[in-house]
Design brief:
Layout lengths: L2 H16 L1 H7 L6 H10 L6 E10 L4 E9 L13 H10 L1 H7 L2 E2 L2 H4 L3 H11 L6 E7 L3 E9 L5 H12 L9
Antiparallel strand pairs: 1-2, 1-5, 2-3, 4-5
Length: 177
């Protein structure tokens, strides 16, 4: 990418991210806010992910649970999914990849002291990721968020990783159901 293109892409990412608090506040009571957020972040105008899954690991309750999944082939194509809550929610209930992610429930790898590499390899294999990347976050109530993802455009990796981790902390504001 050319320098000018990099700056344009960074500006596009900032516009995408800065709109999130307003959107999240408008649907604050939604049980599936995590799915709304993931769909937004994965879209081409934002982080342009081909596949992503978000998990929460709670050592106190000894569980690692999938909360939301995104696959580009199953993307909700309405231009503003935040404004079509019922349709989007139904779409996500019917999304095979999202259902597969949400069906995952395992013992807490943090509590077990298990290897992060082993966990990532296992989840990536189970969800058929080809080139998995991941971020692990410490979030409220001593929980840990695990974000497993693939980029649609590997050339954007440096730009994406520059702001992705800080953005992922928005998942910590989503209710866990």
């Amino acid at each position: 990418m050319k320098k000018k293109d990099n700056q344009q892409r960074k500006n596009e990412l900032l516009r995408c991210i800065c709109s999130l608090p307003n959107k999240m506040t408008k649907i604050h009571g939604a049980d599936n806010m995590t799915e709304f957020l993931l769909q937004h972040l994965a879209r081409p105008h934002c982080f342009n992910l081909s596949k992503a899954a978000y998990f929460v690991d709670n050592p106190d309750f000894d569980i690692l649970r999938g909360l939301a999944g995104f696959h580009h082939k199953e993307m909700f194509h309405h231009p503003e999914h935040w404004n079509t809550q019922d349709e989007f929610t139904q779409h996500m209930k019917n999304s095979p990849f999202n259902r597969k992610v949400r069906s995952i429930g395992k013992r807490s790898h943090k509590k077990l002291g298990a290897s992060e590499h082993t966990l990532i390899s296992h989840l990536a294999g189970e969800l058929e990721f080809e080139k998995p990347l991941h971020k692990i976050l410490t979030i409220k109530h001593d929980n840990h968020g695990l974000f497993l993802f693939e980029l649609a455009d590997q050339e954007e990796r440096e730009i994406i990783e520059e702001v992705l981790e800080d953005t992922l902390y928005l998942f910590g504001f989503c209710p866990i159901f």
